[in-house]
């Protein structure tokens, strides 16, 4: 079934998540506050928009409250990531997944109600290790 996703922050992680969701046939709203970041995503998302993820009015104007799933993929700016997550949870978005930079960031995101906290490098390392020792690789 087709789902609606909004991705806020179009670094490598945000672009990769957006592109794959779109490829899988879902509706994707891709958001970044830097217009240049939208150039590459336009053909790999349903809608794209320049907006500040820490600005409630801008998010509401984009109809963010109609989305069940929002992924916060803002990287280095921890303050922006935290504020954006807080706003989304205050707006009652049911599922807010957030990319964390470090343990302290993770702790704050947990406290303010992020539904899933992602550490891409750590999670990918785990998956690769499991894949390396899986039966299929041993057989190979
Ligand atoms: P990656 O590792 O995924 O490439 P990163 O961890 O280096 O990303 P950044 O490049 O710092 O993360 O941020 C990801 C994106 O988030 C950038 O494209 C940046 O323009 C965007 N971004 C930062 N602050 C905001 C904000 N307040 N609102 C919307 N987008 C933002």
UniProtKB/TrEMBL annotation:
Task: Report domain RCK N-terminal positions.
Answer: 2-118
User: What is the name listed in the Swiss-Prot or TrEMBL entry for this protein?
Assistant: Trk system potassium uptake protein TrkA
Give this protein's Gene Ontology molecular function annotations: monoatomic cation transmembrane transporter activity
A Gene Ontology biological process noted in the UniProt record is: potassium ion transport
Q: Which residues of the full protein are shown?
A: 1 to 140 of 217
